[in-house]
Amino acid sequence: MPNEDKTSDDSGRPQTDKSVQSRGNNMHNIRLFLVLGKGGTGKTSFSIALALAARRQGKQTLIVETGEADSIGRHFNRDTLPASPVKLTSRIWGARVNPKTVLKEYIYDHIDFTFLANRITRSRLFDHLMAATPGLKEAMTMGQIWRWEQEHMKNGKPRFDRIVVDAPATGHGLSLIQTPRTLIKMLHTGPVAREIRIVQNLLTDSKKTALILVTLPEELPVKESLETCAAARDKLRIPVRQLIINAVYPDFFSIEDKETIQALIRDRQNNGLSETAHSMLESASLAIKRCTVQQGYINQIHEKINLPVCEIPFFFTNNLSMDHLEDMASILNTPDSDTDPVMDHV
Amino acid sequence: MFDFFQHKNRPKVIVCCGSGGVGKTTISATIALHGALSGLNVMVLTIDPARRLADSLGIDHIGLETRQVPVQKFREAGLQPSGELHTMMLDTKRTFDRLILRYASRDVQKQIFANRYYQYLSSELAGSHEYMAMEKVYELYHENIYDLIVLDTPPSRRALDFLDAPRRLTNLLDHNLFWKLFRPYAKAGRWGLKMINAMASPFIRVIGPVMGKNVFEDVSTFFRLWDDVLFDGFRQRAAAVSDLLSSSETTFIAITSPMRGPMREALMLHRTLAENHMPFAGFIVNRLHPMLPEKRPPAPIRWPKEITSVLGRKIQCNFERFHELGKSDRAAIRELLANVEPGVEIRGIPCFERDIYDVEGLLAIREKLFFKNCSILPAQTRHEHAL
Predict the structure, then answer these.
(1) Chains A and B: how many Cβ contacts under 8 Å?
(2) What does the alpha-carbon distance between residue A133 and residue B96 come to, in Å, rounded to a whole number?
(3) Is A185 in the B-facing interface, judged by CB distances under 8 Å?
C-alpha cells in the first residue's frame, strides 16, 4: 500500500516537531473523539477527563462506553450506564451502547409490520444472529454513535457538542472503527450500505473526528502503540491525531539532586542518617529510576512517531478520584504548561 | 506460598488469568521457569510476548513452533535447571485449522478454508482466541510430552472473558438453533440459490436484505459443511476440553494489580471458578509499591548540609507521595482479603525499579512468588487473615 504519510519512519530518525500542531489545541471544534489504547493504559479515565475539560469550555459532552467494559458509571457513583444517554453530572452525559437494542430499533424502523418485527426480535435466534454475524455488533455500535452525533434539539443546536467514545481495548477497538470500511466493501449497495457510508464519512472527516491513542511509558504499551499508529494510518485511513502518554513519573530531581541522593545512599554506613531519612532517600531513588526507565520509552515514542504528544503525570494512587480527573482535564486544556499539580507547593 | 510442585498430585495445567496490563505474560514466564528449575519439562503458551523477554530467553524468532530456551541462557544467569523450558506462541487461526484438518475430509477442508465466514470465525470472532487457547492446551496435554503447561491467557478487558468465551462459541455452533436459522440458505446451497426466497423464513427474508445476502450465503455454506462433517467431533472435543479445565489436573491463578478495575475482575474470576467448582490456586497482586511505614515520619528530618532546603522539601514531598501510594496499595489488599475466605493464597510482587525482561528479573519475581514469605501485608491484617 503506498504510504505518503511521513509520520512513519523506519529508520528511527527523530522527527519530533512539536510545532506541527501545537499539542492538540487545533482540536477545539472536534465533535467526535475516538479513544483507543491497550488494556490498562487508562482510556476510561482519559475519556472522562476529556469530558471534564470540555465542560470548562461550556460544552455538553456524551461519554460512550462500548464493548464489554463497564466502569464509567462507577466514577459517577452509578451502576452500569443505560443504553440511552443519561446525565452524569453538569454538562456530562453517559451511555453504554447495547448493539442488540440498536438492532431491535433498526428492525422496527425498517419493517412496516409490527407483528413481524416482534416475531423477529423476540426470537431466540435473534441473540445468536447478534453473536454470529460478522461485524453486526460493531456496525450497530458505530451507527448508534453516528445517530447521537446527529441529534439536535428544537432550537437547532446539536444535543451534544462533543462525543467521547471509550473504545474497547487492543484489536477490538481497531476492528470497531474499521467496521464501516469493511462493510462498505462487503455490501456495496442497499439501505445499510448507504447508511454505513454516511457513518464512514463522519469518521474520516478530520474536522469533526479525531482518533486519540492512550499509552503508558512501558515496553508492551509502547510497542502496541507503534503498531496501532501504523494500522490506523494504513488500514483505517484515519490517522491517530494525538498520543497520550499516561502515568508519567514527574521528573523534578535535577541532575545534581540525583547525584547527591545516590551519594548519600552509597554512604549509608557512615552518614549517620536515621532509618526514616534513609527510606526517604530510597523513595527518591525509586522515583528517579522509574523516571529514567520511562524517559527511555518516551524518547522511543518521539523517535518513531511524529505526532503531537501529551504527557499526563502519575497521580500516585490506584484509584483516580474526580479531583485527579479534574487535574488531568487542566493538563488537557493547557497542555504546554509544565505544571505538576501534585508538586505545586514545592 | 504457591507450592504446586511439591505435591505429588501437582497440576499439569496452570491457567494465568487477569485483565490487560497486569503483567500476565511475565508472571506466566516466571511460573514456567520455576517449573523448569524444579525439574519439570515445561511449556509456556503465550500470546504476544514482550520482544525483550523473548530475546533474553534466547527465543528471538518467537513463533508458532515450539522453542526451547537454550541451556546457555540459564547458565549465564548461574542456573542449572534439571528440567526444560519450552515456549510457543498461540495462533488462533492455525489451531482452528488443525481442528478442521483433524475432523473433515480433504474435500470439505478445502471448502471450509475458502469460506469467508470461516475466516472471520477463526480469526476475529469474539471468543475464538480464548477457545483456541484452551484447545491448544488440550492438544498439548494429550501429546503428553510436557509435565506442565502454563497458559498466558489472551488479553481482554475482563478477566472473566476467558471462561465465558468458549461457552459462547460452543453455543454459537450449537446444532439445532443454527440449523433452524440457516436451513433455508443451506438447502438453497444444495438445491440452487433460486430457492432462497421460496424457502426463506420471514426471519431471513427480512434480515437478509438489511444485512446483505452474501453474508448469509457465506454463513449458511459454512454451517452446512460444519453440520455435515464437523459437528459431532467438535462437540465431543469441546466437552473434553471443558472437562480438563475443571479437573484436578488444572488450576487457575488470578493476576491483578492493586488498581480497582483489575482487582474487581480478579475477584469475579475467583467467584465464578468457585461457583463452577473449578480449581483455584490463588491471587497474585503484581506491581505493588514499596510499603512504607504506616505512620508519617516526624518532621522535619535533619539533613546533612549537601541537601539544600529545596532538595529536602522535594525529598519530603516525593516520600509523601509514595506514602500515599503505599496506603492505596494496602487498602486494595485489605479489600481483597475482606472479599475472599481465609486460607486463599495471596502473593504480592513489588513494582521493580526497572522493567522485567530477563532471566534475572524473572528470578526476582520467582523469589517473591515461591520462596520469601509474603511481606506485602501489614502484620495485623496478615494475622487476621491467618485466623
Answers:
(1) 190
(2) 18
(3) no
Give the list of residues 6+ apart from residue A235 with CB closer than 8 angstroms, or none: A174, A178
A36 forms bridges with which residues in the sheet? A213
Q: What is the mean pLDDT of each run of 10 residues along chain A (346 residues)?
A: 40 35 62 93 95 95 89 92 96 94 81 74 71 75 93 94 91 83 71 83 94 93 91 91 95 92 89 86 92 95 93 93 95 64 41
Decide if A280 and B202 are in contact by the 8 Å CB cutoff: no
Q: Which sign, positive or negative, has the C-alpha torsion B179, B185, B187, B189?
A: negative
pTM for the structure as a whole: 0.84
Is the CB of residue A175 less than 8 Å away from at least one CB of chain B? yes
CB within 8 Å of A237: residues ≥ 6 apart: A181, A204
Residue of chain B with shortest Cα separation from A189: B212
Q: What is the ipTM of this complex?
A: 0.81
Interface test with A, best of B173, B318, B353, B376 (most A CBs within 10 A): B318
A240-248 and A86-89 beta bridge pairing: unpaired
DSSP-derived secondary structure letter, B69? P
- Nearest by CB to residue B353, choosing from A40, A253, A290, is A290
**In the numeric block, which cell numbers belong to residue B105?**
475430509
What's the helix, strand, coil split of chain B in %, to 5? 55, 10, 30
Question: d(Cα A160, Cα A62) in Å, to the nearest integer?
Answer: 6
User: What is the spatial distance between Cα B227 and Cα B196, in angstroms, rounded to a whole number?
Assistant: 19
CB neighbours of B126 closer than 8 A, spacing ≥ 6? Answer: A172, B165, B168
Write the DSSP string, A100-115.
HHHHHHHHHHH-S-HH
Q: Does A274 sit within 8 Å of B322, measured CB to CB?
A: no
